[in-house]
Amino acid sequence: MKADCRLYLVTPPALEPAAFAVQLAAALDAGDVACVQLRLKDVDDDTVRRAIDVLRPVVQSREVAFILNDHPRLAKETGCDGVHVGQSDTPYREARKIVGAEAIVGVTCHDSRHLAMEAGEDGADYVAFGAFFPTGTKQVEHHATPDVLTWWQEMMEIPCVAIGGITPDNCGDLVRAGADFLAVVSSVWQHPDGPAAAVKAFTKAIAEA
Ligand SMILES: Cc1ncc(COP(=O)(O)OP(=O)(O)O)c(N)n1
Ligand SMILES: Cc1nc(C(=O)O)sc1CCOP(=O)(O)O
Ligand SMILES: [Mg+2]
Fold first, then answer.
1. pLDDT tens across 14-36, in order?
2. Could you state, in order of their start, the residue ranges of all structural domains in the chain?
3. Tell me: the pLDDT tens digits for 60-100?
4. Of 43, 48, 69, 88, which is best to mutate to test ligand 1, by the most ligand atoms within 8 angstroms of its C-beta?
């Protein structure tokens, strides 16, 4: 068992904030969740702000970190705990300057050891590897394998996140390989028995890995 692997929830691609807040609260109350990333693509800043206004208190009131995807300025302006940036987004160093030293900054590193080393040396709070499994949430060009997680764990103290098609049934190899966090979208929000059941299933799968 690797008890220190935790869940990292990423919001569904489209959501109505008030209705989603109910689902989110149920998911957070069902088990151990380390952080929630608000990931809304192709919407204007005011739409993101409205979602943050509704969802941030739900998350932060439970002592869970609230991370915004892609938008360091909005993250800073709205009191998010941090930001996640990819390789085509605001570069890490610029994002760090915007959000400040205390905020969390995570960086997508695909399957690249070089990108991960670079992000780690620059000061990223976590590096994210993926996609580990086929995903319908996003078109991905890079595919990672569990050995990158093991390599990272042996080299670095900075936490690593695994993402892409992760489910309670397939997460065991990633947990055993050394993932500090499992970042998940569809297997939680589209779980047939609801997000709370999904979080419980992940909690059990992580504990048994
Ligand atoms: C935890 C985590 N890992 C990876 C990503 C992907 O980021 P990015 O490559 O910038 O792609 P988009 O999510 O912005 O489409 C992520 N968001 N979160
Ligand atoms: C947002 C994202 N980034 C990825 C990457 O590989 O960097 S895969 C992905 C989608 C994750 O959604 P699901 O859990 O539904 O597969
Ligand atoms: Mg991005």
1. 999 999 999 999 999 999 999 99
2. 6-208
3. 999 999 999 999 999 999 999 999 999 999 999 999 999 99
4. 69
Judge whether 41 is annotated as a binding position: yes
Output the 3-class SS for 112-145: CHHHHHHHHHHCCCEEEEECCCCCCCCCCCCCCC
Q: Which residues surround ligand 3, an ion (CB under 5 A)?
A: 70, 86, 89
Å from CA of 39 to ligand 3 middle: 8
User: Of all atoms in ligand 1, which is nearest to the CA of residue 138?
Assistant: 15
Per-residue model confidence (pLDDT) at position 1: 39
Residue closest via CA to ligand 1's atom 3 equals 128
Q: What is the ipTM of this complex?
A: 0.99
Chain centroid, CA 209 distance in Å: 20
**Under CATH, domain 6-208 is a member of which superfamily?**
Aldolase class I (3.20.20.70)
Q: What is the pLDDT of residues 158-186, one digit of tens each?
A: 999 999 999 999 999 999 999 999 999 99
